[in-house]
Amino acid sequence: MSKGKIPFVFLIILSVAFCSAQLKGGELTNLTGNWSGSWKSDISGHEGPLKAKFTVSNETKIQARFTGRFFKLVPFRFNVTLDVVSQKDGVTKLQGKQDLGRALGVYHYDVIYKGDEFIANYKTDKDKGVFKVSKN
Length: 136
What we know:
This protein is an alpha+beta fold. The protein has one domain: Lipocalin. The chain is built from 2 helices and 8 strands, in the order αβββββαβββ. The chain has an 8-stranded antiparallel beta barrel with strand order 1-2-3-4-5-6-7-8.
């Protein structure tokens, strides 16, 4: 094998690795922006409108800001950091938790993000349910 072939093969391997990393990052880039949908509690049956704004911090962390209404009148707003757990075949799984104080407790999120669909199952000591939003 000549000396010229080794660097060329090495460059091909690096290019393939770089392109794979860019594809995964690209999936997350599509998450960036404003989304809307609804939330629903499995325990109480309460539901309402929900808006989300996602910011990709890096390939492992997403900042999410959720705003919505409870009892159709009471507004809520909170931020949560979601960690990327896995990415495979266009499906990104995320997890996060947020302490919303003594009254509401700690919310744990298990998320599936695929294309224009973001579904977060949440649970606390007192409640569980789902946030569903799609890209505006």
